[in-house]
Design goal:
The complex is a heterodimer.
Chain A: E1 2-4, H1 5-19, E2 23-27, H2 43-47, E3 52-54, H3 59-71, E4 75-80, H4 83-86, H5 90-97, H6 100-103, E5 113-118, H7 133-137, E6 143-145, H8 150-162, E7 167-172, E8 179-181, E9 196-199, E10 204-208, H9 210-224, E11 230-234, E12 237-239, H10 244-253, E13 256-259, H11 268-277, E14 290-292, H12 303-309, H13 313-324
Parallel strand pairs in A: 2-3, 2-4, 4-5, 5-7, 6-7, 10-11, 10-13, 13-14
Antiparallel strand pairs in A: 1-8, 6-12, 9-11
Chain B: H1 23-48, H2 64-69, E1 78-81, H3 86-90, H4 96-103, E2 120-122, E3 127-130, H5 138-150, E4 157-162, H6 169-180, E5 185-191, E6 194-195, E7 198-199, H7 211-215, E8 220-224, H8 228-243, E9 249-254, H9 276-283, H10 287-298, H11 302-326
Parallel strand pairs in B: 1-3, 1-4, 4-5, 5-9, 8-9
Antiparallel strand pairs in B: 2-3, 6-7
The chains are: A alpha/beta, B alpha/beta.
Chain lengths: 325, 341
């Protein structure tokens, strides 16, 4: 039986709350079905409102509280149903969670998981749309995780919560309806996870994360029909970033395309291309590396502009054909 | 009868009321406050003389607060500090040598030489971190309290913060969250009337901050923060209530720091409502001086004992410093260690 991405996240929460008494969840909307889709349905009823805590409208205090609880041995998950609002918690995330281990000589362990949901489209506009993974991937001390597959949605959530480090786990609601077969749960060591090849090919290395990786998978067959063999690498772990698999792939294909759902400047696509090209042998590329990102503007509300703003599969296919041709 | 204005440095110069207090405990207070004062005064001199490379925020004058609070805490509680936290840590019985070593950036320090004066950690003493971002640890302390509640342990959290920190919105959020969660936490506001160089009258419409607790229905107490016995009694009662599950409380302690905001100069912030006259008046409200006078009132023969104690403390402080000076710095490969667990 196939499971959808949202339900896979739910089963991750279920596993964690069932097996680890030190896990608790805190955040806005956790007792409401519409804040977080199907990803947390009835957890409060099953595990109690003491461990699944719906909160005041205080992103900063709740994130700080989750960090403080983690210092005393708990494994909290703080949920931000929209990443845009999570910016209120930047001090807690950047100044506190990311710094405490190093700053206290490795003695403090803020093993908190900070779940930020990307929730865009539908004419929601500038402050209800952002994909801010690159912002967090800039910070040493944070692990930044972006699942794209149904299995990763569940298993990387579990790995994040079991990690002794602060983890930003980012899931995109545009991924929730995809379905796949779920295997048995495997408890992964997050520090050993990194980018993975989702599809092997010879003509072009396409690197992406989250929803962009799903788009890459969606166009893979369509470009194969045009004789282009894509190698798709899903980033999965954006920080600390390990470029080695991508480098290896580009040496084989000679072409690199990075598709990212964030902005271009100082973004994840830039990081991937720099990390690969500064290691790559001169002459190893058959074409210039290319970034496809959001336009450098806030998200619009009007539907016509929104269609322009987000990358369509058709436009992605055109870019791929142009690059390989 | 209404109390005279605690913010006026002309008031509260007389000895403190120690009636009914155990003499040994009072001497412990004296010893702990004196040790902290001597440590801070030594740090001031060593910073001035170039031994210490980074900033030190000294709390000389404010010792009665942590010394009055700490006897009601134990090592399974969670204490959080801020930039001016040497006293918060030492009052818990934490190692002075490790504090000096940390200030000097030595690997034997509380934070293994990675934190310095502003970033202190001593889990065995129940000290869960101090940081210089204003109010940065306040929500963390609420989380530690929520964790104690979830585990049904008797631990409580203590958040030390200042009158400047309450101007950060996060403090209001934190008190509201603590109250709605019935979290076992004591907020202790050391109201020394200054945020860096700015007097509270230039920053807030009132010189008392406990009105912020009222908004979240957090019970609060305003007291003379330079009276170690009053701090002790109030904190003990609050902590008992909090341990028994009655939710958060706030204690506002009016006090004053003898040094400027940072480093060794007492006159550094003078000019923005901080005059040498005020500083001298506040020295008449010195918590150690007032306790000494009280002790001598009840027992004249105690002077010799206090003198002996002072000699011993001087030696201890000096030898802790010398030991720390000899300690090694962190190896260069520590730079990239500990970013992740």
């Amino acid at each position: 039986m196939k499971t959808d991405f949202g339900t896979a996240i739910l089963s991750g929460f279920d596993y964690l709350l069932e097996n680890y008494p030190e896990v608790f969840v805190i955040g806005q909307g956790l007792w409401s079905p519409w804040y977080v889709g199907t990803t947390m349905t009835d957890l409060d009823k099953k595990f109690g409102k003491e461990r699944v805590i719906d909160t005041p409208v205080s992103e900063s205090a709740c994130t700080g509280a989750a960090i403080g609880a983690s210092l005393t041995g708990m494994r909290p998950i703080i949920v931000h149903p929209r990443m845009d609002f999570m910016l209120y918690a930047m001090d807690a995330i950047v100044n506190q969670a990311a710094k405490w281990s190093h700053m206290f000589g490795g003695q403090a362990h803020p093993g908190v998981t900070i779940r930020g949901i990307i929730n865009r489209g539908g004419e929601q506009g500038a402050q209800h749309s952002q994909a801010l993974h690159a912002l967090f991937a800039h910070i040493p001390g944070l692990r930044v995780v972006m699942p794209s597959t149904v299995t990763d949605a569940r298993d990387l959530l579990i790995a994040s919560v079991l990690s002794p480090d602060p983890v930003i786990y980012i899931d995109d609601r545009w991924l929730y309806s995809q379905t796949d077969e779920l295997e048995e749960i495997v408890e992964l060591d997050l520090s050993k996870e990194g980018p993975e090849c989702l599809m092997e090919g010879n003509d072009l290395t396409l690197v992406a994360s989250g929803f962009s990786s799903m788009q890459a998978r969606e166009v893979c067959d369509l470009v194969a029909n045009k004789g282009i063999s894509l190698e798709i690498i899903d980033l999965r772990i954006l920080n600390p970033f390990d470029a080695s698999k991508i480098l290896e792939s580009v040496r084989k294909t000679g072409r690199l395309l990075v598709v990212d759902g964030g902005w271009k400047a100082c973004g994840m696509a830039s990081e991937v291309i720099s990390s690969v090209t500064e290691e790559l042998e001169l002459g190893a590329l058959k074409s210039k590396p290319l970034r496809i990102t959001l336009p450098s503007a806030p998200a619009p509300t009007s539907a016509t502009l929104e269609r322009e703003y987000y990358l369509s599969n058709d436009r992605l296919i055109d870019c791929i054909i142009n690059l390989v041709r | 009868m209404e109390k005279p204005d605690l913010t006026n440095p002309k008031n509260f110069h007389s000895p403190i009321n120690v009636s009914g207090m155990d003499l040994d405990l009072l001497i412990k207070f004296y010893e702990s406050m004196s040790m902290i004062r001597k440590a801070e005064d030594l740090l001031a001199v060593k910073r001035r003389d170039g031994f210490i490379g980074g900033p030190v925020h000294l709390g000389a004058g404010q010792e009665a607060i942590p010394v009055g609070v700490s006897p009601s805490l134990n090592s399974s509680d969670f204490v959080f500090g801020a930039h001016r936290s040497h006293g918060h840590l030492l009052a818990l019985g934490s190692s002075l040598h490790k504090l000096f070593a940390e200030v000097l950036g030595k690997e034997t320090g509380h934070s293994k030489g990675m934190g310095g004066s502003m970033h202190l950690w001593d889990e065995p003493s129940g000290f869960y971190g101090s940081v210089p971002i204003m109010a940065g640890t306040v929500p963390l302390a609420v989380g530690a309290a929520i964790s104690a509640k979830l585990r049904k342990s008797s631990s409580i959290a203590v958040a030390y913060l200042g009158d400047g920190a309450v101007e950060e919105g996060i403090v209001i959020e934190s008190m509201n969250l603590a109250k709605i969660q019935k979290a076992p936490i004591l907020f202790i506001v050391e109201n020394n009337l200054f945020a860096s160089h700015m007097h509270i009258s230039l920053r807030q419409p009132s010189s008392y901050i406990s009105r912020f607790a009222d908004a979240s229905l957090v019970p609060s107490h305003i007291l003379d923060g330079n009276d170690v016995v009053e701090v002790f009694k109030t904190a003990r009662n609050s902590i008992n209530d909090i341990r028994s599950g009655q939710g958060p409380q706030l204690i506002e302690c009016l006090t004053y720091r003898f040094y400027g905001h940072v480093d060794w100069r007492e006159d550094v912030d003078v000019g923005v409502n901080r005059s040498m006259e005020d500083i001298n008046d506040w020295r008449s409200r010195d918590p150690i001086k007032r306790l000494t006078e009280s002790l001598l009132e009840i027992n004249e023969t105690i002077e010799d004992k206090l003198n002996d104690l002072n000699d011993e403390l001087n030696l201890n402080v000096q030898s802790a410093w010398e030991l720390a000076l000899e300690d090694p710095f962190p190896a260069k490969d520590k730079l990239l260690e500990g970013v992740y667990a």
